[in-house]
Amino acid sequence: MDTRIYQFENKASYSRGRMNNEEALFHWQNTPFYDLASAADQFKKVKFPEKQVSYTMFRIINYTDVCDIECNFCSFMKSVESKKGYVLTIDQILEKTNEAWQKDYRQIFFQGGVNPQIPFDYYLNALNSMKTKFPGIHIRAFSPVEIREFSKLTQRSIENVLTDLRQAGLDSFPGAGAEILSSRMRNILSGKKTTPQEWYDIMAAALHLGLKASTNIVWGSVETAEEIIEHLSMIRKLQDETKNILSFVPWTFQQQTKGFKVRHVPSHEYLKMISLSRLYLDNIDHIEVSLLVKGKQVGELALYSGADDINSPVYEENVLRSYGLSNEQECIEFIKEAGFEPKRRSFNFVYGEKS
User: Fold this and answer.
1) Residue spans per domain, the chain
2) What is the DSSP letter of 194?
3) Nearest-angstrom CA–CA distance, 66 and 82
4) DSSP classification of residue 319
5) Do 109 and 311 meet the contact criterion of CB atoms below 8 Å apart?
6) Helix axes 225-242 and 267-280, enclosed angle (nearest 10)
7) Distance in angstroms (rounded) separating the CA atoms of residues 80 and 272
8) 163 to each of 124, 184, 211, 320, how far by Cα in Å?
9) How many helices, marked H, and strands, marked E, lie in the chain?
10) Which whole number is the average pLDDT over 241-246?
């Protein structure tokens, strides 16, 4: 693989070699965001000479809001003891899928809380029912912590659980629940979350089985610069090992609870993360900008800072306050006005394929 990246001396320059962790930390802490953005934009043009920006349209179906992981930053979850939460019936899931299908949203992001009261057959039935009624739907579902709990529930291996879900209709696997992959931050986020190694091992199992995946980072709390680079290093190592990560998307924490510290992440810092991701994650082709969280103005700049994809529009976002685009026409106009050619893609990142 050609691992050409841009190194920095007096200014951005083109050279061969892979950015190491010490260089990544230096650039994160010291290099002006506009220099990093310029280099990332040049590197993106090497990967993708055509001025295309891809997008997809998906519906989120949160099958339950009951969760016993108790993440400190999450206001969506309801405790098991509260008895205030919900669990969607299969009919309700199919109704939501049909609504998405009728609006030409052909991909479902199926995810919820970790609800110990739901039997494993529920998930198999949900996937199978969606696939049976809507054979062309793409189901991107669950997260490493959900898979870990399914394994405990069924007393089956991670690999067997993933195989069962795949046979029932699971198409791709999001690397959700990563946030910051450091032991210190995991304990701050929730002592019940997957450890960094658990998250890595479950992701590796899914990717080795042939499932394609997305990955992310969520920052803007009390993480250190060193922990940010540690996180990116684990993502790059995972891709070196598996080759099945399709995209990486940076997110920032939103203030949802009083008990979790969220700091303001200025736009230039977000753009620096986009650029560093493009340069450091040299083995992941697609860097997504989160219009959902950062809005159109920052999103447009991100497309000139290394990003080549926007993860919007999204239908029914319940967890985050959304600043994204509401429909496909808005999406197309946004990309064109930014100076690029819009390409609707599938979750498998086939440019121009309308799934």
Assistant:
1) 5-344
2) P
3) 9
4) S
5) no
6) 30
7) 40
8) 11, 32, 10, 30
9) 12, 13
10) 96
Burial class (CB in 10 A: 0-12, 13-18, 19+), 80: middle
- Who contacts 144 (Cβ-Cβ below 8 Å, separation ≥6)? 175, 176, 177, 178, 194, 198, 199, 202, 203
Pairwise CA distance, residues 75 & 172, whole Å: 26
∠ CA 308-101-249, nearest 5°, is: 25
Contact 328, 335 (CB under 8 A): no
pLDDT in tens, 248-287: 999 999 888 888 999 999 999 999 999 999 999 999 999 9
Which of 66-75, 147-156, 171-180 bottoms out in mean pLDDT, i.e. has the lowest?
A: 66-75
Predicted local confidence at residue 198, as pLDDT? 98
Using CA atoms, how far apart are residues 186 and 194, in angstroms rounded to an integer?
8
From the candidate CATH numbers 3.20.20.70, 3.40.50.300, 3.30.9.10, 3.30.420.10, the one assigned to the domain spanning 5-344: 3.20.20.70
Whether residue 263 contacts residue 228, with contact meaning beta carbons closer than 8 Å, is answered with: no
E-strand stretches of 106-255: 107-111, 138-141, 172-174, 212-219, 245-252
Average pLDDT score over residue span 223-241: 98
111-132 confidence digits (pLDDT tens): 999 999 999 999 999 999 999 9
Q: Which residue has better confidence, 259 or 195?
A: 195
- Lowest-pLDDT range of 138-147, 156-165, 225-234, 258-267: 258-267
Helices (H), 12-119: 21-30, 33-47, 90-102
Give the pLDDT confidence score for residue 204 in this predicted structure: 98
